């Protein structure tokens, strides 16, 4: 007699394979669900593996397009970046994956969902907040937080033994001395030898980007066209080729960025759970878009709107990082940011070269840039005398402050 | 009979030489004041030139050390950056220059100050707000905003003619088709052919940084040590050389950054005066410090303090850009930011290579990073079960929101 | 030969009557425009006066309804309040008045607009920024900033003499020793004897509200119903009467608030121009709505949305105060705030009594308040054990901080 | 054999008396700790009761002075207010109480602390975060979150039975149909019949303030003097009496405020735990100080400093409410706010009358208010012509925006 049905976010790897079997051992029916969000994976093999381990059903879902359109694009609009450095590649993947997981659970009448995220990380929160938000009555089984599970599997060795005992295929290649998470947007690396924040990352760690030392000696010059703050076309100017669908655009930017070693960072970040952790990320296409969108936005958006929107973008980034993609406040902020992008339109030319993105120029039918107004050579509709009054009035407050301080001049 | 004495911010160039003579023509005694903030300039020649043009006195002031310690260092602490991209190299030089100008004016009993900044730019504001703040009763003569002046000198040709007529030495090399401003921190380029935001910058424009295409194929690995958020030592790890005074540190970072083509940006920014303008900047040492300070700060500062401090840093950047270095609010913000830096201490190792700064690792006696706590291999003082409650409580609000929305599940 | 046509914001009072005549003297055709935004005024008499002074045309425009719906309502949604105290009654009237002025100017082919606001105040900015925003090529004549005008009219005596000389009817009642500005939302009092911030306001100053000392000894109990953050009905519970159109609702709240002496404040505020000024305001209906809207909003809006919206409301208030109602950023913020109000719906019961507004209770079909969840008597869908984990995880960061500080316990 | 020693935050009431006995039942030694923070309580009786129940030791600590100086005063400086309405009277008491509890625990070698706060409220968090922050290795026993406890005591009836059985004196007066929490700063009322947010509060609920209907018909006119943002003297102008120590000042303001029914609010607020709850508060002295401090601050603080400080104050309020008084970020914010108060000095005159606080006037040796500068009658050091330039430059951006929108005039 089954305790009920669990939809398990299954990766095909050792951990979630063991979890699948363990859940069955506990008396659950298990539906294995594997989201394709662009990671390198043999999905057919994974399906067979899950079936062979006793999954009642297996769902392998290609979420790549919705990942780009509904998660990456809003992040590009927001210039989303956590703590000034991290482009949130894992953070935005989690709600995308969990949303489908919940849909499957509802559709299959499953009361439970489960995942293999650890008990110290951010991902458990991102998965579960999404599940609770979209399926409030769901029950979540998080084995790495259940003492019977984590006490039994205290290290990789225990998992290997369990796998062998239960006929779970065991990886033949030795595990890298760190863990990684890959999707269309990025690969992240953490733990293992990277846990010592002083240790330099080995140069063979990166899988998505070439070492800038080995990058080609000739830049690629691209033109990216934006409408409403999202890219609608990327053109390679020399090759005169272009991409126009969201998935093609993003994949192509990954390719070019990867070729030139763009988007590598090594940071210490603050987890929602209150710890500092060290993470290494490579985000080639996302990095190109980050710089390019900043440029077209500054070109077309009013200064003061930009300032308010910048604040909303920082808030948005924090919400995403902490797992609140599906929350009333994140929906509100997304709406506002999207509104701000109405005029963010135009073309940016850029050079991708040896780890860097260089903005070369930009044009837009909606720019607030007024060449005549700003020109040093012509007057435009501008009276320089106005600036005197502007400065004098701005100084009223400063002069009053000084008057009060009295001896302030001595201070300087 | 003199109308009074003017302290003129004199650069040695054509514009301020003409202004010097013109001010004398208007009946003022002129004191020429030239600040050395690290620009390439023949200061002796400039002194002689000013004297020959009839300056009553000439002050040539070496402000390099105070520029680094009192203006660059606080900006490093703040991660000061305007509109996400511009490191404010010109903005922080202006109050440094104007402060001394005002000191000289007071000391020499001059009622007037003057400068050669244009009527459309930010610098007029930065100069004048500083002057009004520190010398509230000063009178400012800003020729480029005075119709008699700017109508007489409508182009470079008019200045050249005036110069010839008044024995002002005329530059022999043709002027670059853009204007530039240089100091220890950066060189900025704008106007002329750069006014069209679509035009790519010519590759020979940059003077402070090498073209990344021609940069060495071997990185330089540095270690920068911080105390209270400012660098106190930089060490070249392979060469085992190090620098320890502020000016030496910054100069050395400029050298290394320049060698590898670090810190070039091409942006459109929003002037305080309400226009968008296009600027190109190269900030080699400042860019290295920006990335390095971000790293040591994230490593040592509490997450929530960081968030508040980030907001203050954005405010600080805007204040600096707009000319409010000497204002009650900027003093307040500087105080707060400085307070936040008390524990920002430690060493960052980094690689400077082909236009990029790569952080490699970091260590600190004051880090909040707890390797055991965050480890995936050991438990540390952490109970994973706590995370369940944490997530469930965070979900209370989200589930209520969903409950209210009722049909929300259909939405997704 | 006319210099052109000026649309003058005409109040019917001495100042703008003199300005009307003075503008004609300067060679302009003058169209007098008088907005009815609820001030006590004999509009017919004002029309005749303007005609008799030589106005080419006279426009008397009833803007009361649009003032309530398009200016007061968005301010209610925003909980707009400047510097924590001032409800912005004058600030929001200015763009309303100037918008129509500009419409008339366009329609009548007038190139000029003019107003009687002083050169030290906020209103000149609010008028003129609205005009420039909506009619960028307009020319503005601001007599109180023109030396020929303000040197000629240095005091009220000069205006009186000019009036007598030019057949301008002179007020028969002596002027109050302060100036005031009245509209549907409030009356403001400033200058004159109020300029000394220590002076108490005389008790006969207030015109819109009764002295709380003389207010009735029985409260009025109202119920205000909101939809999308604006009141749609107000009911007097004992009298069972109700009002439903915006103008009627607001007028009625003024009446009840006025009767009980609600909404008087005496403050020092910071003008955009950099000065501190002292203002006294009475805003009866606006004060009732401020408290009531805060209540229904807190009842129906998610906590985190509220926090973000609060920040936007502060920004909005500052923008309004400074004259930026018609600006890209204010339009953006209004849009976002309006979006946040979608679920702000329900009824609030309140007592208006002797200078105060007391909230008594509230109900809403869209509330996020869950009586069972919050109850101390029943469990609801809530496990108290979750709070332990929540607290423990929130403490991770605090305990780490303490660990680092080491001797911190001695500190306390 | 004892399980160890617990320091229990003991109130003398039924709940914590039962907890005391229950803890002993569980095998702990119990130290009873009762903080005097100004609540009405027979402390001697409470001591005897605790001793009779078997407390190993009893600590009754008078924290009133430190509560005013270290917790209320910083809140006054910050204008601390949660969600625009709640003056945080309970929130700031918790860290004050818990700090001493932890000191006692350390001093007595107790490894445990315990309290009687419920599992749905904010107070559990405020208590425990303080304990973890100041005594990271402490173990906390929170009976209302322990199933064996809360399942045993499902209602007041169970507690009464347990009390009778264990010789715990049972209250003779029937419990009010709500719960309350009292201290020097305020009394809060919640739950019971108040849980329905539509129910009006009964008029006999309030204990600290008189019903405004019954308040005297003559106002009390006070003068409060501030230094560094905190009150240093309060004077009753008619009676010529004054108070000068923090505790006396605050107690006196409570008395005057209470007499006139000042500081009653009925709100719905957002708990940290994610629920909305309804609370009724009376904060007589705190309300007087809130209004008075706002006034002296606006009078003496620069506009832009005020804006930044306002943001910090909102953050501070949220931190306090959520229990983070002892956190790195709250310490940082307190430091910054305190810095901002250096010039907040002067005297405010005010009238306390029938539920309201009316500011009448203010004076300060450090005010930035410049009567001559702001005067409508004299020019002061101000050129009205400057405002034209100020407005024109501020309009540059607005006119550009309009230019781009093209058909915008039709819009209006």
Task: Explain what the structure shows.
The structure is a homotetramer of 412-residue chains. Chain A is α/β, with parallel strands linked by helices. Chain A has 2 domains: 5-175, HUPs (Rossmann fold, 3-Layer(aba) Sandwich), CATH 3.40.50.620; 180-301 and 343-363, Argininosuccinate synthetase, chain A, domain 2, CATH 3.90.1260.10. The first copy, chain A, has helices spanning 14-26, 43-52, 64-78, 89-107, 123-134, 147-152, 156-165, 246-259, 284-300, 303-322, 328-340, 371-374, 385-405, 408-411; strands at 5-9, 29-36, 57-62, 112-114, 139-141, 179-182, 187-190, 220-227, 230-236, 241-243, 264-270, 276-282, 346-353, 356-363. Chain A has a 5-stranded parallel beta sheet with strand order 3-2-1-4-5, with helices on both faces. In chain A, α1 links the parallel β1 (5-9) and β2 (29-36). In chain A, α1 (14-26) crosses α7 and α4 runs parallel beside α5 (123-134). The longest helix of chain A has 21 residues, at 385-405. Chain A is elongated and about 85 Å long. Residues 407-412 of chain A have low confidence and may be disordered. At the A-B interface, α4, α5, β11, β12 and α9 of A face α4, α5, β11, β12 and α9 of B. Chains A, B, C, D: It catalyses: L-citrulline + L-aspartate + ATP = 2-(N(omega)-L-arginino)succinate + AMP + diphosphate + H(+). Chains A, B, C, D: Its EC number is 6.3.4.5. Chains A, B, C, D: Residues 178-399 form the Arginosuccinate synthase C-terminal domain. Chains A, B, C, D: Residues 6-169 form the Arginosuccinate synthase-like N-terminal domain. Chains A, B, C, D: It comes from Chanos chanos (Milkfish).
